[in-house]
Amino acid sequence: MDTTIKNSNLKSEEYFINMGPQHPATHGVLRLLLTIDGEIIKKVEPDLGYIHRSIEKMCERDSYQQIVHLTDRMDYLSSHINNEAVCLTVENALQLEIPDRVKVIRTIIGELTRIASHTLWWGVMGMDVGALTTYFYGFRDREMINDIFEETCGARLTMNYNIPGGLMFDIHPNFVKRTKEFIAHFKTKLPEYDTLLTGNVIFQKRMKGVGVLTKEDAISFGASGPVGRGSGYSCDVRKHHPYSAIDKVTFNEVLKTDGDSFARYQVRVQEMWESLSIIEQLIDNIPEGDVQVATNAVIKLPKGEFYQKVETARGELGVYINSTGTKNPYRLKFRSPGFSNLSLLNHIAVGSKIGDLVASMATLDLVIPDIDR
Amino acid sequence: MNISLNITKTITELLSGFMPESAANIGAMVTIALIYLAIFAVAGLYLVLLERKVAAWFQLRLGPNRVGPWGLLQTMADALKLVSKELTGTVKADKFLYNLAPYFVIVSSLMALSVFPFTQEFQAFDINIGLFFLIAISSIGVIGILLGGWASNNKFALIGAMRSGVQTISYELSVGLSLLTMVLLTGTLQLSEIIEVQKNGWLIVQGHIPAVIAFMIYMIAGTAETNRAPFDMVEAESELGAGFHTEYSGMKFAYFFLAEFINMFIIAAIATTVFFGGWLSPFGITESIPWLGVFWFIGKTFMLVFLMMWFRWTFPRLRVDQLLTLEWKYLLPLNLLNIVLMALIVWLGFTIQL
Questions:
Q1: Would residue A4 count as lying in a domain?
Q2: CA distances (Å), B31 to each of A345, B36, B106, B312, in order?
Q3: Which residues contact A302 (CB under 8 A, 6 or more apart)?
């Protein structure tokens, strides 16, 4: 990786550039302080806080029903799964018995969200390495999922479909039909992703052996989701701590051992196949029943600490609630996947080129509001 | 065989009817310059539109379709907007070089256009070192890019400019050598004569294997010369924002932008002239109607332009060290071997004459 001239008297000077907060590769308002020697990166220092909205502090002010609406705005590409995390924590604390129908619907929409997030990531990832066409292919398929969401709950991105105790309302009558249409459509389109980008020799040269993260490092940096699994670290929360209806289905945890950008890329693409299979197993037998259990208008959690983690499209999202028995949490903390994944950027990018930094950053799949909250 | 200055002659004769000869000469030159400027400003604009339409076609979109029928006036409107925009600049930029840079780029691309034989008659300037002139002129453009990046007082622009310098200088070798391979076959550098030679079959057929290799090397290196994807290290919007022209706005930006498209046209036009018979029609089917040469020339050129657009909208971008590896470790040795092969073929007379 290090291609500086060895044993030479040539001297070059390190310099410093600001990548972001407005830069096309940082996908939002991330600012990277780069120390560079020519093209070679010496140090990457992420600077956060440009989109900090103090969501955790706002949660201390709000009731539990209101908190769900804030979590949409963290990782906006996994908004449904974020909502689910908070709802599960509250439901566990109240020891509510959630109807099976709710669990299945939550899981189906959660997996659809994961596919939508991964298709967007795939498109943007292609753009980061210079293949501009992928973006539109990704969005074509994501659009179908967004249409399903829009019909179901009226929103395409920040869904607010979950409430503590169930769902806001039942699914739309067309939901099953359109989801099946999407599955049929996406099964023909997903191979296109491979023919357009995965098999491309330039793409493989850009990805393989770039941004290598070993399993030990992945664990010590707290990497989760596809980033951890690309390094061979089995960390799928759905496998190890099943929640909602995930224990009713069989699916494989995608693991790659190379730990480079290409491994992380492959994990995400194969995860889309796995998500499709999960939806296929559930879509035909959504149980009948209620979509809500009655809760008090003012939810008061018992005194104590509660923690629940879920697998968002980016990795492990943990919700920690410390309750004193009042109608708002005393302290609420999110363990967001993006924050830990960003922390290893310096580790994997040092010594590589500017282009490699962009490629590795793309495979970390960062969503900045998730990191800043 | 000096048939090719006909368009200049015609205009000079027309003008000398009512003015002294020296004035007529100058008048003819100015007229031709203006005609070329007008044609290629418009051609550049429509290449932009073509690129947007082609991109849209690859990307499941419609492309520009609001301004004028089928969006035909879109780029005109864009150009008008760019003309009317304020020319901003950075503080502490080297004002003189900063303002000078776009002219290097646009002048070099417009000058290169003057030597192309669009038909037997329609060629402004036919010199006996035409191909050499083209290579020489088109390498001036990189000076403009280097200056622009250096004078902008912007580190992203500087990185882009340095990448451009490295890239263009490396790939010029390949462009030059692959054209040299074909010169071995034609025995002349004059563009009109290169086309005359091809009346016995296009050079890509005459030179068969080495010519095809030379063509492929030329297209790769030519794409790199124009700084287009997959070799768009210079702009690399996901890495450097807009690269060397980050700090340019309005018409100065438009010069860089237009030059990129005209350069693409030039690279394709050289390939048409040297490999695909220029204005010659396939099998001489329209030989009796000489002015149809324009149609064939433009048609072939646009096929190659389309090929370059196809590259751009399909491939990811190479990394800067991979780009240099490709040139110095693969293309250059292959090219040198190819020249030897071509020399052998010409020496032994193994060419295909139709």
A1: no
A2: 60, 9, 19, 36
A3: A93, A94, A323, A325
Q: How far apart are CA B243 and CA A170, in angstroms?
A: 51
| Interface list for A 73-102 with B (CB within 8 A) | none
Q: In chain B, what percentage of residues exceed pLDDT 90?
A: 5
Task: Tell me, rounded to whole angstroms, the distance of Cα A8 from its chain centroid.
Answer: 45
Closest residue in A to B230 (Cα–Cα): A130
Alpha helices by DSSP H, chain A: 55-61, 64-71, 79-94, 100-128, 134-153, 175-193, 201-207, 215-220, 225-230, 237-240, 261-283, 337-343, 345-349, 354-364, 368-372
User: Domain for residue A49, yes or no?
Assistant: yes
Q: Please count the structural domains in chain A.
A: 1
For residue B154, the chain A residue with the least C-alpha distance is A17
> Is some CB atom of chain B closer than 8 A to the CB atom of A298?
no
pLDDT at A2 over 70: no
Q: What is the ipTM of this complex?
A: 0.80
Single pTM value for the model: 0.86
DSSP codes, A318-330: EEEEEE-SSSS-S
- Counting other chains too, the contacts that A55-59 makes at CB distance below 8 Å and 24 or more residues apart are A55/A334, A55/A373, A56/A332, A56/A333, A56/A334, A56/A373, A59/A328, A59/A329, A59/A332
Residue A294: how many other CB atoms lie within 10 Å: 9
How far, in Å, CA of A69 to CA of A76, rounded? 11
Cα separation of B234 and B149, whole Å?
10
The CATH number assigned to the domain holding A173 equals 1.10.645.10
Backbone dihedral angles phi then psi of residue A366, each to the nearest 5 degrees? -85, 135
Whether residue A326 lies inside any domain: the answer is yes
pLDDT digits (tens, 9 = 90+) for A55-76: 888 988 888 888 888 888 888 8
Tell which residue, A30, A22, A78, has the closest CA to residue A52: A30
CA separation for the pair A217, A220 (Å, rounded): 5
- Determine the residue among B319, B321, B326, B329 to mutate to test chain A binding: the one whose Cβ has the most chain A Cβ atoms within 10 Å: B319
**B29: helix, strand or coil:** helix
Q: For residue B232, list chain A residues with Cβ-Cβ distance below 8 A.
A: 130
Q: Where are the alpha helices (DSSP H) in chain B?
A: 6-16, 21-58, 74-84, 95-113, 130-138, 141-151, 155-186, 191-197, 203-206, 208-225, 237-240, 250-275, 293-314, 320-325, 332-348
* β-sheet bridge partners, residue B39: none
- Cβ contact (<8 Å) for B240 and A354? yes
Q: How far does B57 lie from chain A, in Å, by closest CA?
A: 10
| Contact in structure between B155 and A19 (CB atoms under 8 Å) | no
Instruction: For residue B314, list chain A residues with Cβ-Cβ distance below 8 A.
Output: 131, 133, 196
Which one of B317, B320, B325, B329 would you mutate to disrupt binding with A, by most A Cβ within 10 Å of its Cβ? Answer: B317
Residue numbers of the domain that contains A354: 15-372
Question: Does any CB of chain B come closer than 8 Å to the CB of residue A366?
Answer: no
DSSP A292: B
The CA-based dihedral angle spanning residues B76, B80, B81, B84, taken in that order and rounded to the nearest 10 degrees = 170
A43/chain B closest Cα distance in angstroms: 16
Q: Do B318 and A127 touch (CB under 8 A)?
A: no
- Check residue B7 and give its pLDDT: 66
Supply B260's token pair.
């990129």
How close B59 gets to chain A, by Cα (Å)? 6
> At B262, is the secondary structure helix, strand, or coil?
helix
Of B155, B238, B320, the CB nearest to A24: B238
B86 CB burial (10 A radius; 0-12, 13-18, 19+): exposed
Could you say which residues of chain B have pLDDT below 50? 1-4
pLDDT value of position A294: 82
